[in-house]
Amino acid sequence: MIKKVLLLAGILAVFSTTKAHPATDNDTIEVVYADTTGIDIDSIEASIDHIELDEVTVEASAWVRKADRNLLFPNAQQIKQSKNGLQLLQKLQIPGIVINPTDNSISLTDKSELSLRINGRPVTEKEIQGISPEQIIRVEYIDNPGIRYGEAGAVLDFIIKTPTSGGSFMGNFTPSLNRGWGQYWTSVKVNTGKSEFSYSGWFAPRWNLEMGRSNTERYELADGSRYVRTEQSQKGSGFEAWHNGHTLNYNFLDPQKQMFNASLNFNNNNYKNKYKGILTDERPGGIENNMYDRTEYISLHPSLNLYYQNNLKKDQLIMANLVTSYETSHSHRLYNENDLATDAPMVNIDNLIKGKTFSVLGEVDYEKTWKNSRLTAGIRHTQSWIQNKYVEQNTIDRMNQGNSYIFGEYWLRLGNHFDGSVGLGYSLYHYAPQNRQSHTYSIWRPRFTARYTIDDYSSLRFNFVRMGSVITLDMLSPVVQDIDGIQQSTGNPDVKPYATYKYELQYQYNRGIFYGKLGAFYTHAPGAIMPEKYWVGDKILSRVDNQKNAEELRFYLNTRINVIPGWLTLSAAPGWHRYWMRGNTYTHTYNNFFIDASIDISHWGFTLNGILQTNFNRFWGETLTGGENVHGIKLSYAYKDWNFGIMVLDPFINNYKVKSENWNRYAGYYRETTTNMIKQLLTLDISWNINWGRKHEAGQQRINNSINSGSVNAAGK
Question: What is the mean pLDDT of the chain?
Fold first, then answer.
């Protein structure tokens, strides 16, 4: 009781520093200093029904800990120096959240699924970018999502005030000064009463960029003999891309009653890459071949997302979401080998796949909140009709796929030290390939979380979850595609879904200028679908199958230090993980250390930002997929509605490369891909945010849904 009185007294003392005159519709309350970092807001909410922070201008960094999420309140300087939501997110420096400067994508360090939302509704990175910083009340970071979020590793939800009048014109142009590279984005919003109309568009061209590939392939023949073949990259290798997207959005908000949102999206992806090289058979008397490997991928993807939320009486919500999506794709690979001496053709491969996918997703959720507990329940169904035409094989492969998911979860707080949740989901999968046997599978998906709050600054949490898997058409397809003159790939109609079990322990400490989270987790997936290779006649065939087990052990540390409030912030997320891959015919282990770090120095309108990302390497089956080593520096200056900056990536290295390996006994390889796109890339960065006649209201939407396509890429290296 004494703690609660002291906490309440502290909050009242902060508010007592505000201006003592009646607030009008256009007034905001200016807090001289409101450092809420380290406060466990649940202990406050147990005594106080609600503290309205929407109109408080926070002058110091605020990181507030709740039972199931962290609340980040941007301070006044961060808002002033940011011209869009993406820039503000970068300034918040949430450990474990990575913003890729080459494409403005937002991801987790471990590349697991990140759910992005605005007031709860599903959004893309571009929609996050389109938020005016002054609209943002707080950012909710959920690093332990509940069972209704499916396989998401974390959730970022931007809680914003919705303008009731006026509009905005925003943009961000990032042209390169020394490469064929650029990022261009713009957004227009108009508000009237409870409605908002908006358009945003983006364009990401890449052209005349060099790319190289060096490759060492190791083969073991059926008689046990071995040999090596090498690939040396030649001039003429490179790639280009012409990606763009457009969004029309309508939002209706009555904050105390209901919300409706309609979003029409169109995305076009178009990229080409080509490799030229010399293949050398290292055996005595081995021949050399000229190699040409070209890949082109084009996709058109319109989608419509409808969302409705009704705020019922007695702290109840009903939410409904409908998403329709259609995608056409064109994946084309040409691969040739010619004798180096005679130019005689040795291998000629032409794989062209034309895909179509139409999907419908529907979900209805219910949520009821009490003083110390919350109940969530819902049902979701996705139906997809997928077609892939293999032109060279003169084969059309079709499949109807249905995934149903029903779930319920109950969260409860017990006193001031304990809270936890118990959830149960049930997934039903139905796969009906054309002219082949259909299959129906089900997976129970329990989830359990328990948290012990040690004191006002620290807590200990344990999580357990059983996750499901989804089978795609290319996994089931029996169509055989040539990779080169030796290797082929195909699917496996007999694979079955599998479950992954995850056990996680976390310790979190949050006090003053410091936030830290130390954790470890272990996952294992019996029957995991992973590739395997073996000899079939004179070819090595690669296909997927249910293997024995896939395991991972990971230790990680997330830290954030507000060294000089308002001036200097440091963030770092180091980690180490170990894989055990236990296949039907192989066993492999692999270790990897990784780190993401950033620094933000801001004063007098200037901001100096630095990033460091080391390789986060993933191992699955027999394949190691390497991450990127990237570092960068950006200097910017904010002036009124504008932000002007200059950025350089990898200024201190002369060679950018990404490695991959395959440890298969019969056909393993070590491969390095290089490009000049990142190395010492120098760009301008011009942002603007022009607002007129704006007033705000706040609302929150809860469901997050999107549909992944069923398109298939032509098999390649």
Answer: 87
How far apart are the C-alpha atoms of 703 and 688, rounded to whole Å? 30
- Write out the residue range of the structural domain in which residue 512 sits: 169-698
43 domain-assigned: no
Residue 60 has pLDDT above 80, yes or no: no
514-555 pLDDT, tens digit each: 999 999 999 999 999 999 999 999 999 999 999 999 999 999
CA distance 253 to 258: 6
On the question of pLDDT at 164 being above 90, the answer is no
Residue 151 near residue 80 (C-beta atoms within 8 A)? no
Question: What percentage of the chain exceeds 70 in pLDDT?
Answer: 88
Q: Which residues are CB-neighbours of 208 under 8 A, at least 6 positions away?
A: 180, 238, 240
**CA separation (Å) from 505 to 122, 166, 450, 460, 556?**
29, 48, 10, 8, 11
Q: Which of 212, 229, 211 is nearest to 669 (CA)?
A: 229
Give me the CATH number covering residue 595. Answer: 2.40.170.20
Residues whose CB is less than 8 angstroms from the CB of residue 52 and which lie 6 or more positions away in sequence, other chains included? none
Q: Where does residue 384 rank: exposed (0-12), middle (13-18), buried (19+ CB within 10 A)?
A: buried
Residue 452 contacts residue 444 (beta carbons within 8 Å): no
| Residue whose C-alpha is closest to residue 678's, from 645, 629, 636 | 629
Enumerate the β-bridge partners of residue 390.
353, 395
Give the DSSP letter string of 17-47: TS--S---TT--EEPS----TT-BHHHHHTT
Cα within 13 Å of Cα(134), Cβ side: 12
- Helix, strand, coil percentages for the chain (3-state, nearest 5): 5, 65, 30
Closest CA to 488 of 287, 228, 236, 717: 717
Give CA–CA dist 488/335, Å, rounded: 13
Which candidate, 87, 129, 380, places its Cα nearest to that of 247? Answer: 129
For the chain, what is the domain count?
1
Residue 630 located in a structural domain: yes
User: Judging by DSSP bridges, how do beta strands 568-582 and 618-620 pair with one another?
Assistant: unpaired
Looking at the domain assignment, is residue 538 inside a domain?
A: yes
**Phi/psi at 78 (5° precision):** -60, -40
Coil, strand or helix at 222: coil
